[in-house]
Amino acid sequence: MKFLDEFRDPALARKLLAGLECRATRPVRFMEFCGGHTHAILRSGLRQLLPANIRLSSGPGCPVCVTASSGIDRAITLARQPGVILATFGDMIRVPGGRPRGQINSLQEARAVGADVRIVYSTLDALDIARSNSAREVIFLGVGFETTAPTIAAAVVQAESERLPNFSVLSLHKLTPPATRAILDAGEVQLSGIIGPGHVTSIIGARAWQFLPEEYGMPCAVSGFEPLDILQAVAALVEMAMAGKPAVSNQYGRGVKPEGNVVAQELLKRVFHIVPAEWRGLGVVADSGLALRDEYRSFDALGRFPLPVEASQEPVGCRCGDVLRGVIAPPECPLFGRVCTPDNPVGPCMVSGEGACAAFLQYGV
Amino acid sequence: MMCLAVPTRIISIDGQMAEVDIGGVGARISIALTPAAKAGDYVLVHTGFAIEVLDEAEALETLQMLKEMQDSAQQAPGCSTAGQR
Q: Which of A18, A31, A56, A364 has its CA 20 to 30 A from that of A356?
């Protein structure tokens, strides 16, 4: 068992697809919350292979994409402070902020004019940078959902135990269930079910999605990321939607427990508390962000560097927000593939490696 | 940074850190979030941290379920067009 190839069998996938068409006796539309699912669905060709009566919409599950312009602007301002090293996951450096034309508007541009912006793979690397640059301030740009936030919490606890005085975090972390609620409450897309994000749910547990059937009558199938995983989740959603029996169906049992990763959840609670957060495309969503608790104030970049941030503007003509809410598919944006490309992204949904727009362009849909 | 996580086998453990094999390349990861992980386990690795220990029994059950769905799909009448395009 390698936990990969077994879930990629094309012959089996074809047979599962054949069974799906007759099971969906009316048209259905499901949203895959997670950008990882969007990429997997396009890369494997599932989007085109699914029967015409089963449609998929991509959701807001791309942490880079949902980071509001104001968050990017704040990161740029911090990166340009004297003595600061800003450590970040790679894709964040290309995301455009909300500054007027002609100003430094991404971390990449800030780096070009002298800011010390370093790409790291893990918070462990950021801690190493802090240890070996004791005269500098190392700020980690904390972006990501429940999957990623515990790794930042672990780094903060580690920094505390080592008494690392020069490490702090700009927390732009976001929580996925409140965003899902916001999309359903807005009622802009008619959905018959939600494909639950697999690795978020490894942390929060399948039970965390119970509000979908209970409060919204919405089926939810938690899915892994291989083609057979996704097909199986779609089949489970079709079954529940047709039977009118919404539930949470965990189709990723090998990586997701009903209760989730309790150690990670406790670490999150220890370091962060829940606050409102601004999402690109969704606006401010109550109880959807994570800020450092008072006990960890000395590791909070916001407290350490209280800087004013000017009002941000969203890029003109960019429909990233509509893409994130599933209201339009990327090719429906007038900028898609013409003005906005992975080499020259107007909005974050086109930034390479992340986002529905980049995936649609990459896989030629 | 998207919530990508890769199934990876633990070779050895040293405190909160573990040696793993990612596609034939050795790497060091943290098991602070999965303290129960042991050598030989497959874990999901996300940004240098194991976030969950993979459950082989559950994986086998999923594969079994997929096979059963395949069998029932073959028996269903008049449903042979999708997936052939």
A: A18
pTM of the predicted structure, to 2 decimals: 0.93
Instruction: Give the domain extent around A167.
Output: 20-360
**Domain assignment of residue A8, yes or no:** no
Closest CA to A29 of A181, A232, A241, A227: A241
Q: Is residue A13 part of a domain?
A: no
Q: Which residues pair with A34 in a beta bridge?
A: A61
| DSSP line for B24-68 | TEEEEEE-TT-TT--TT-EEEEETTEEEEE--HHHHHHHHHHHHH
Question: pLDDT by residue (tens digit) across B28-82?
Answer: 999 999 999 999 999 999 999 999 999 988 888 888 877 777 776 666 555 544 4
The domain total for chain A is 1
Q: Between chain A and chain B, how many beta carbons pairs sit less than 8 Å apart?
A: 182
**Domain residues of chain B, as ranges?**
6-75
Distance from CA of B43 to the nearest CA of A (A): 9
Instruction: Tell me how far apart the alpha carbons of residues A288 and A267 are, in angstroms, rounded to a whole number.
Output: 17
Nearest to B80 among A18, A145, A147 (CB): A18
Give A234-289 pLDDT, tens digit per residue.
999 999 999 999 999 999 999 999 999 999 999 999 999 999 999 999 999 999 99
CATH number of the domain to which A274 belongs: 3.40.50.11740
* CATH class of the domain defined by B6-75: mainly beta
Of B3, B74, B81, nearest to A199 by CB-CB distance is: B3
